[in-house]
Amino acid sequence: MKPIIHTVHDSRTGTWQYIIACPNTKEAAIIDPVLDIDTATFAISTESADSLLDIASSNGYNIRYLLETHAHADHLSAAYYLQQTLQAAGKPKAPICIGNKIRTVQDIFAKKYDIPSEELDNAFDRLFETNEEFSIGTVTLQVLHLPGHTPDHIGYLIKDEGVITGDSIFNPDVGSARCDFPGGDARALYKSMKTLLDLPSHYKLYTGHDYPPANTDGQGKSRQPLPCVTVGEQRERNKHAKLDSTEEEFVQWRSERDQGLSEPRLIHQALQVNARGGRMPKRTHNGKVFFEFLVAVPDRLMG
């Protein structure tokens, strides 16, 4: 049974969010939901997440799962907010799920941001094994391990339809994601992209982000963000991993490219929240949450 797939773009972070629903049972899953944050005031709000709930409500969906592809560094996950909001409305608890390699990522960022272990131990309700299958109504999904961008990265394969890829591959004119986060590996990412390109040519690859390059229409305008293209289109046109690409060329280019990239603007907030499964740090003051930030300063400024 082919699912219904709703594609919802968050323009502020370039993120694609997805709702996958079974047309028979109306069971559904939300994938990679976004919390809104004002980078000037650091105020967090829920408009994007609420829009996903509106779609679910208007279609009569029962949200069965809240799914993450990885611990994102460019947006805050709304999974915990959605879970709590649904439960407050009398709905059954929708488990927050991610791949089991998240433990590696949590260990890295627990040290970096001094996150107490008790805030990580039960951050996720279910950790998927590689190749594990689960169902949304009569729709079966299989978990693919697609490391490279991050070590915990997974995708969700829907037979005869395609893959929710997260950041393991981008649209052909964007190509690939950076690999310079802790645990990232350009060689692993190339192999993950090739794994996706070995799928049947009609399968759709639903990407986690889209950043349309300028002037793609020949008239000085960017194209509109696209949630997916087919495997066949990716094989022919992906500028980093198409059929005539080589692993060594990709690794060299990706490594050089990543050295010149600045940090994502929300990286510190995102990693501290997303390692906790979308929960905020417990340390607060006057109703506001403390985040840990590491700032490089000259030695002469250190007391």
Automatic annotation (TrEMBL):
It holds the Pfam family Lactamase_B. CDD domains: POD-like_MBL-fold (cd07724). InterPro entries: Metallo-B-lactamas, Mito_Persulfide_Diox, POD-like_MBL-fold, RibonucZ/Hydroxyglut_hydro. GO terms for biological process: glutathione metabolic process; hydrogen sulfide metabolic process. Keywords: Metal-binding. PANTHER family: PERSULFIDE DIOXYGENASE ETHE1, PERSULFIDE DIOXYGENASE ETHE1, MITOCHONDRIAL. The keyword Metal-binding applies. This is Metallo-beta-lactamase superfamily. It comes from the Eukaryota. GO terms for molecular function: metal ion binding; sulfur dioxygenase activity. Residues 14-209 form the Metallo-beta-lactamase domain.
